[in-house]
UniProtKB/TrEMBL annotation:
InterPro entries named among the record's database cross-references: SCAN_dom (IPR003309), SCAN_sf (IPR038269)
Protein's recorded name: SCAN box domain-containing protein
Domain SCAN box per the UniProt entry, residue ranges: 55-131
Origin species: Pygocentrus nattereri (Red-bellied piranha)
SMART domains: SCAN
Pfam families: SCAN (PF02023)
Amino acid sequence: MTSAESIAGRTTVSLEQVCELLQGFIAEQRSKDELIHREMSAVLRKYEINKETYRQRFRDGAVRANETPKELYTRLKGLYEKWMTPHEKTKEQIGDTIIMEQYLKMVNPELRSWIIECSPTSTDQAVTLAEAYIAARQAEGKFRSRIMLKLW
């Protein structure tokens, strides 16, 4: 492979040499990008920074000291994009995520914990899990369906 240094001393360079250098540069850049991605992923896992973290920060509602309206908007938009990843999801998937969040807020804490432990991938699946949980408890004679919902 021709190095950039050896080519730099020449007055003429062939197209093949330029292509070879570019291919080497691109391969090196991809390797660096992959390394950075792996390292960032490891840091996020270590500190347990995930979509739930971004959701909580989005819902926090606190304005930082000396934060301008534009800075607040930019921060919220960034948190939303990290939480919802709109470039990866459809409108229906984003809606399902918001409905799931509200659904979990409205059910009994015991039921909520159980649903979260089961890691449903959709609100429909969460509802099925909730119904199965309640049916099992009713069979044991411990709960009535209404008791599993929060009573305000």
